From TrEMBL:
It comes from Myodes glareolus. Keywords: ATP-binding, Disulfide bond, Glycoprotein, Golgi apparatus, Manganese, Metal-binding, Nucleotide-binding. Residues 206-413 form the FAM20 C-terminal domain. Pfam families: Fam20C (PF06702). The keyword Cytoplasm does not apply. It is found in: Golgi apparatus. Its main location: Golgi. ATP binds at Q107, K123, T237, L238, W239, L240, E309, D324. This is FAM20 C-terminal domain-containing protein. The active site is at D304. One of its GO terms (molecular function) is ATP binding. Mn(2+) binds at D157, D324. Its cofactor is Mn(2+).
Length: 424
């Protein structure tokens, strides 16, 4: 064999060797990642049901200290949380030592301080007993079966949606939503005695029911939240530690909320290419967080994420924090596919998210969500139509990803952005 032929043959063999080695390593890495995803899913399912227990047996720390120590740049709480039941019990039962109007925003809420100095946000159930509805106070009753008509972002905040969204965050393995639990509060004995003048001035009585309307952009005396007598159902969201200040960002796929005026993403199918050229979406995990959030919001029916928060000074490395999920679970019959625009326009998704979604097929998601919320103080948190819809929406998400993989291939669509799993 001539020298030139030998060189060519060696070059071909070298290329084959390198390709085979890379292919095998990639397969091993992918297989290891998939095995870890499967193990993580089983761990989540094992610890899904959270029973609210009154004390922590193995530590002298307060529940507030433990929850604060959980927070890191990429998660609000860790994968394994044996103390979660005690923390949520404290959120649902600890004495309220101060009550004030909520932080600025468009929807009614109250800022409470619980015993031990922990700040929480209280979102009330919008309820007014029928015998006491009048022309003075507009009808504002949300039962579990209430269907919000109109635009996908219409209606008041739903307190139960906050509870359900938190548990969905656990099930999806994102761990980016602050802790939320349902709570019953006596407005007359627990809130009014410790309320600030600003909050107290918004209290009124309708029939035999105590009501308040708070301070916010859409808060009106004619649209209060009313207790059933003095007892008000609501949700409690744990305030993130002050050592983790938040930074607000305009969502690149936000709506205009103006009739007849479309946002660019609503008419420009190449919009994602422009987003990829702007910070912080041009590098780091933020764009993939946007995709995760689109999946999360679609499952819960939240078309109102016009802004989002991350931790300050993070240079794009912080997670997208899943705050304010109460415009969810409004209409189980409405599938607002445009919520998925980041997914179907960018056609990328994390491998770990894709794996988790597939594990939740065939009714597993509905069952898991129902089980996770079973011990909440306001259980049942969601009606059956909402639970059924979540399962159907999951299939729509999977179908959307399949359309992407059919068009661009799995290697392009499924993105592995985890740290190397060297310990496997």
């Amino acid at each position: 064999m001539k020298l030139k032929q030998r060189v060519v043959l060696l070059a071909i063999l070298l290329v084959i060797f390198i390709f085979t080695k890379v292919f095998l390593i990639d397969n091993l890495d992918t297989s290891a990642a998939n095995r870890e995803d499967q193990r993580a899913f089983h761990r989540m399912m094992t610890g899904l049901r959270v029973e609210l227990v009154p004390k922590l047996d193995h530590t002298l720390q307060s529940p507030w200290e433990i929850a604060a120590q959980w927070v890191v740049p990429r998660e609000v709480y860790p994968e394994e949380t044996p103390e979660l039941g005690a923390i949520m019990h404290a959120m649902a039962t600890k004495k309220i030592i101060k009550a004030d109007v909520g932080y600025k925003g468009t929807q009614l809420k109250a800022l409470l301080i619980l015993e031990g100095g922990q700040k929480v946000v209280f979102k009330p159930k919008r309820f007014l007993p029928k015998p006491y509805r009048s022309s003075l106070v507009q009808e504002c009753s949300y039962s579990r079966d209430y269907v919000v008509e109109g635009e996908p972002y219409a209606g008041y905040d739903r307190h139960n949606a906050e509870v359900a969204a938190f548990h969905l965050d656990r099930i999806l393995g994102f761990r980016r939503a602050p802790l939320v639990v349902g709570r019953y509060v006596n407005l007359r004995t627990e809130i009014k005695p410790v309320a600030t003048e600003q909050l107290l001035s918004t209290f009124l009585t309708v029939g035999n029911n105590t009501c308040f309307y708070g301070k916010c952009y859409y808060c009106r005396e004619t649209e209060p939240a009313c207790a059933d007598g003095d007892m008000m159902e609501g949700s409690i969201t744990l305030w993130l530690p002050d050592v983790w200040p938040l930074q607000k960002h305009r969502h690149p796929w936000g709506r205009t909320y103006r009739e007849g005026k479309l946002a660019r993403w609503e008419y420009d199918e190449s919009y994602c290419d422009a987003v990829k050229k702007t910070s912080p979406y041009d590098s780091g995990p933020r764009l993939l967080d946007i995709i995760d959030t689109a999946v999360f919001d679609y499952l819960i029916g939240n078309a109102d994420r016009h802004h989002y928060e991350s931790f300050q000074d993070d240079e794009g490395a912080s997670m997208l924090i899943l705050l304010d999920n109460a415009k969810s679970f409004g209409n189980p019959s409405l599938d607002e596919r445009s919520i998925l625009a980041p997914l179907y326009q960018c056609c990328i998704i994390r491998v770990s998210t894709w794996n988790r979604l597939n594990y939740l097929k065939n009714g597993v998601l509905k069952s898991a969500l129902k089980s996770a919320m079973a011990h909440d103080p306001i259980s049942p948190v969601l009606s059956d139509p909402h639970l059924d819809t979540v399962d159907q929406r999951l299939l729509n998400v999977l179908a959307t990803v399949k359309q992407c993989t059919d068009q661009f291939g799995m290697d392009t669509v499924l993105v592995e952005d985890r740290m190397p799993l060297s310990h496997l």
